[in-house]
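Q&A log
Question type: sequence-to-structure
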Amino acid sequence: MHKGKNNRPYYVVIHGRRPGIYKNNQQAIDQVHGFPYGKMKRVKGLKAAKQLFSEKRQTKAENKNYYVVKRGRNPGLYLDKGQALEQIKNYPYGQMKRVRGYENARAYLRGEEVKVKEKIPNIFIDGSYIQSKAFSGYGFVVVEIDKLIAKDSGTILDYDLINLHSLGAELYGFIRAIEWAIANGYKYVYIIYDSNAILPYLETSEVANGKQARGKAKLAQIYAEYKEHITVEARHKSDREQYAQYHEMAHNLSRLMSDMSHDE
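Response status: OK
Response body:
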């Protein structure tokens, strides 16, 4: 008997190489096996998996701070500073250093060269669906070290995406932001979003049936391809107070073409 989304098991990788929601147990295990403090959990039903991931997800390994005990009782990588300090306390010539990013931390532990820190832009996205005008649009602004460096907006013409309404508009803005980052040579980017449905949807390969399936399938396929070329860390607009100003700019941009081409 075929298991529906509400009954089948899902494997939620909370902390690992690629946090996300997996249908395949081995794929999820591969993300946490041999990874410092790797954490995954089996849950029943896609809804429960999305909720758990949204509530418990941790910062991706590429941007997390690690405490590297290079010389101490138990050399290795630690997420907790107190635990790392215990390894060097009263230890002859104990050595510990905070390093940003899993690969950099591992390289430092091994005595290899640590990569030079690159600039990481914040891209604030939003999408608008205006039913009375049958209009969908997106907008985003790019901020680097507290300086606005780029912005973009546009109308969505693909009916399969328009049919996803406001969620589809924001998802499309998410994709356009990634395209901008890739085109400008970035390997890592923060994307600040509005809808809580964005991240759980993009991090699972499950695509719903029904009239919205085509649009979702298109966006999921594009996102999966782009992830091979860039690392994206998504953050909700409420994570920091200073996000509000730039998100409002992105929201206004998502409505810009509608306001220009239609009378209220």
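Response note: The chain has a mean pLDDT of 84.
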